[in-house]
Design brief:
Chain lengths: 138, 138
DNA sequence: AATAAATATTTAGCAGGCTAAGTAAATACT
DNA sequence: AGTATTTACTTAGCCTGCTAAATATTTATT
């Protein structure tokens, strides 16, 4: 049965990737997961926490905590929305902007390592499979 | 560039899977990750914590914590090794044995959902790619 | 035999990520 | 207008998972 293995493989690959690039992130004073949040802000600054929970596919409380620690570390800052008093908008600081390049490089390096030995066609194929699986989980 | 997407896809798929079957695990009074530890004990009971860190590919302190909470919940128990006073051996209780079937079913269900729409050949192919990637990360 | 080094586990402390329950502001309803 | 509901976020508490430092036991060295 190949099927059971696939779930396991993905689990292992994912956790192993996390482990490996967490070391690199630590040098930027970042923790695994925080890179993803910052990434969302690169592509769309001035975003509400609610939007972040959707983009990151996680719970509101998780965003609260993550933003709070990222704020404490100086990567982002928050401002209350002037119109709607409930919502809190998140912005990148210069420090948060500055880690964009290094993080992108860390990711690229990790990807290269991951895909070594796979031809362009196979990568294309793999990508299609992954897209399908991602859709299946929605 | 397909390459960057692949890393992201795997990340998303993995976390989405976690989210989804964590609900099912909760009904067994289990937390995501604990299923993996129990799984190792099904295939090889009477195992040291050091062996668990290798099998789970995690840090010793993580095993300590996980075993401790699983012990508190009655899924496993520990005994000191009579020969080597440093090592601690972990065993399944009946409760820990009893969740084997339900957990396997949860996994199977998750896999089915994940792989829906992929032919047998494609699953085979995907599995090969994943094996390669797993090897690449070692 | 006495000291040094290695091994197995633990503890403390941090962060992501979750649930459940709470607060505050905005919208809907009567 | 006044109450009820919804929405955005927060807090408390738990667990995985990590690092760094501590403890205890075993093995290696001299």
């Amino acid at each position: 049965m190949v099927d059971n293995e696939i779930r396991e493989h993905i689990d292992k690959i994912s956790s192993q990737m996390r482990r490996q690039y967490s070391e690199a992130l630590r040098e930027l004073d970042l923790h695994v997961g925080q890179d993803n949040l910052l990434c969302k802000l690169w592509t769309a600054d001035d975003i509400t926490q609610m939007q972040l929970t959707e983009l990151l596919n996680c719970e509101p409380s998780t965003v609260t905590n993550m933003v709070k620690t990222l704020e404490k570390k100086g990567f982002v800052y928050r401002k209350k929305d002037p119109v709607d008093g409930r919502v809190s908008r998140v912005y990148l600081t210069e420090k948060g902007l500055a880690v964009r390049e290094p993080i992108t490089q860390i990711w690229r390096k990790q990807q290269d390592k991951l895909l070594k030995g796979l031809t362009a066609e196979n990568r294309e194929l793999l990508n299609k499979f992954l897209q399908q699986m991602e859709k299946n989980l929605r």
